[in-house]
Amino acid sequence: MTDENHLFPAEPIQRQIARELYTHAKDLPLISPHGHVDPALLADDVPFPDPARLFVVPDHYVTRMLASQGIPPARLGVPSVDGTDVETDGRAIWRLLAENWKLFRGTPSRLWTEKVLADVFGISTILSAGTADEVYDELSSRLAEPDYRPRALFTRFNIEVLATTESPLDDLHAHAKLAADGWGGPGGRVITTFRPDNLVDPEWPGWAGRVADLGVLTGLDVGTYSGFLSALRSRRQAFIEAGATSSDHGHLTARTLVLSDADAAVLYRKALGGGADAAEAEAFRAHMLTEFARMSLDDGLVMQLHPGSVRNHNTALYERHGRDTGGDIPSATDYVHALRPLLDAHGTDPRLRIVLYTLDETAFSRELAPLAGGYPSLYLGAPWWFLDSPNALRRFRESVTESAGFYNTSGFVDDTRAFCSIPARHDVARRIDAGYLAKLVSEGTLPLDEAAETIADLAYHLPKRVFRLDGAA
């Protein structure tokens, strides 16, 4: 099990305060308002596959580290685009991970994995080449037990809300099955999130075909720009009926643009015909962010903006294994100028709510904290992806609190595909916040009772409110 002082300050007085503050958050239900867990996992509730397919194959944090040391993803079971030449022996994949476990020293991947092994599966054996088979066999035994099936773990994890993320083209069958089963876990629920990136990016291969599929799915004429917008509104409503309270937008940049309907229609027709150049494609994406903000004014979906990832930077990896396999790289992002057109149009409208994320730490204090501290529509999202680590979480609080305070942030967002790691990630965030608040208390900046209230808000109440999970407007 995790040491009771894990991640708390080393200074004795601050550590003592952190331990006390942590007690106000550690047992609160988990709010997971944004993530990428496959909803079919819970809808079907079949036993997890072997340990390798739970911990290694789908985890691009793990596979990219091993790939950086010359171990091809195919040897780790990562599916190839053509379906050939991929390792299928789970034990062989697990042994390869164990033999190279030292590569993960100091990384959050090691932290999460060891917490999951100990806290979820009760395995305290240190992973190594010599213990690979022992850990694999013990894990396999656990995975065969009913108490370790997805729905049972959902309940044990004390998850109150788990949001998954789907394309507008998803038929939401898994969510419909969960609803038909009347299942969300005792006191919990599983909802979807509207992620339209693949329908607003003309440079994404197959875009025109997906737009046509949107027309078929909705029964609307997407040959016109107005019909395209109507089809997107239709799918947003379907997502809302499936529980969605937010949308998610993962554009390369945070650029926004306000076009007239006539100019947007011209750009849409050009893109649909394959004639839009890179600048025009970016203009269309930028305009659609503002268009989605307009839609949010009407239907209440909270916008989440996740810019700054250069997708498929590793061309060879993309060509062999496709998207979301570890080939993306962070890039600097401008927010101050990029968001201004949208904010000029809607930034003070009380109906609008936007949660901003970044992969560029330098933007936290320079741009995002001042923006969140200056517009009622903006909230600052938790450190994400490459920044989702103990030290980055500490730096986040240190860099944004003096400008934005605590209550212009969204609380913790785990943003993960790895279902079993959700409790570990939330526990890390709660411990880091306890340590940061303990420092403020020890320095006389914040009274202890206010710090206790604040850590509960950060862990539970803020994400419920910001993502409109409490039923309030």
From TrEMBL:
Recorded catalytic activity of this chain's protein: D-glucuronate = D-fructuronate; aldehydo-D-galacturonate = keto-D-tagaturonate
Protein's recorded name: Uronate isomerase
Organism classification: Bacteria, Bacillati, Actinomycetota, Actinomycetes, Micromonosporales
Species name: Actinoplanes derwentensis
InterPro entries listed in its UniProt record: Metal_Hydrolase, Uronate_isomerase
GO molecular function term, any single one: glucuronate isomerase activity
Family per record: Belongs to the metallo-dependent hydrolases superfamily. Uronate isomerase family.
EC number of this enzyme: 5.3.1.12
Keyword list, A-Z: Isomerase
Annotated metabolic or biological route of this protein: Carbohydrate metabolism; pentose and glucuronate interconversion
Entry superkingdom: Bacteria
GO terms classed as biological process: D-galacturonate catabolic process; D-glucuronate catabolic process
